[in-house]
Amino acid sequence: MSLIALGTVALDHVKTPSGEKKDILGGSVAHFAMSARLFTKVHLVAVVGYDFPKKHIDHLKQKGIDLTSLIVAKDKTFRWRGEYKSGDLNTAVTLETVLGVLMSYEPRVAEHQKDLPNVFLANFDPDVQMKLLSLMRKPKLIGLDSMNLWIEHKRPSLLKLMKQVDLFVANDAEARSLTGENNLIKAAKQLRKFGPKLVVVKKGEHGVLFYSDRLKFSFPAYPVEEVIDPTGAGDTFAGGLMGYLSKVGKTDERSLRQALIYATTLASFNVEGFGMAKTEKLTLPAVHKRMKEFINFISC
Amino acid sequence: MSLIALGTVALDHVKTPSGEKKDILGGSVAHFAMSARLFTKVHLVAVVGYDFPKKHIDHLKQKGIDLTSLIVAKDKTFRWRGEYKSGDLNTAVTLETVLGVLMSYEPRVAEHQKDLPNVFLANFDPDVQMKLLSLMRKPKLIGLDSMNLWIEHKRPSLLKLMKQVDLFVANDAEARSLTGENNLIKAAKQLRKFGPKLVVVKKGEHGVLFYSDRLKFSFPAYPVEEVIDPTGAGDTFAGGLMGYLSKVGKTDERSLRQALIYATTLASFNVEGFGMAKTEKLTLPAVHKRMKEFINFISC
Question: In CATH, what is the architecture of B3-298?
Answer without folding.
Answer: 3-Layer(aba) Sandwich (3.40)
